[in-house]
Design brief:
About 60% of the residues lie in helices and about 5% in strands. The protein contains 13 helices and 3 strands. It has helices at about 15-20, 45-55, 75-85, 90-105, 115-130, 130-145, 165-180, 190-215, 220-230, 235-245, 250-275, 280-290, 295-305, and strands at about 5, 25-30, 35-40.
Length: about 300
Amino acid sequence: MTRLRFNLKDESIVDDEAVKKTKGVMGVMKKGGQYQIIIGNDVGYVYEELNKLGKFSNQVPKKKENSTEKKNILTMLMDTISGIMTPVIPAIIGAAMIKVLLTLLPMIGVLNTSGDTYQLLTVIGDGAFFFMPVLIAVSASKKFGTNVYYAARNDDPVRYLLDYPGYSEGYATYVEVFSYSMMDAEGYGDIYQQMNMEMYEYNLALCSRVDLGVHYEGWKKKDVRAYLRSFGMDDSQADELFQMIIENPANYLSYYIGYQEFHELLTDYKKMAGNKYSLKAYHTEILDAGPCSFDILRRRIESNL
């Protein structure tokens, strides 16, 4: 992000040489229907001052439907992608640099991987990637001229401050398990459906049990090894799972318990709905509600029957 990009009505009135001689300007370029002034790393400061001088708004103006401006599809596509992704790039670069440091510093003995500093930097480094959908949504809403908070639906802004991993990860697991019911394996569909569903649930249940053992019952690495040996897992697999659970507490529980909640809610919904039961209506209620606690979700579904 090193350039100021202008969509000019008439590029012929611009004095290119005068622009190039302006202090801080490294060059100009005309590309994709835009007049681009190359500034460098200080482009953000220049942009802010330019907005103040011209009393410009950072909101995207609505285009007139009868606009005679012509752009080919590829140019429009590239302009859209660059307009959305460019504001997000600094966050990606910053997070990537932190991840690089987390790899290099332990190698040279400067940082202890079991220390609080390492854990804190890990959270910071993962932050940009964890919230990447949010960052892109905000950037896209600005690009398309929509309100940031209400880009998707007219919800209370406080909803965006709340996080319900049991809903998000649980529903993702529910959908994946549900997809197995759509299998068609040349007459053996029912068998493969059941096998895949049970294996998936089994893996999540096993990892969730270890998670509870480590973080609630105080299991050590040797306890995890002993427990998993009874399920045919060797010590290297146990050590790998132990490390993952230490780094991400309750992660597997979000998937497994969340999935069980949705599965139980579907069973109860069938009983309550009776002849009015509709799987599509059930899924619509879940998605319309959005991330929330399961007691709230249950009350919402019951009240809309």
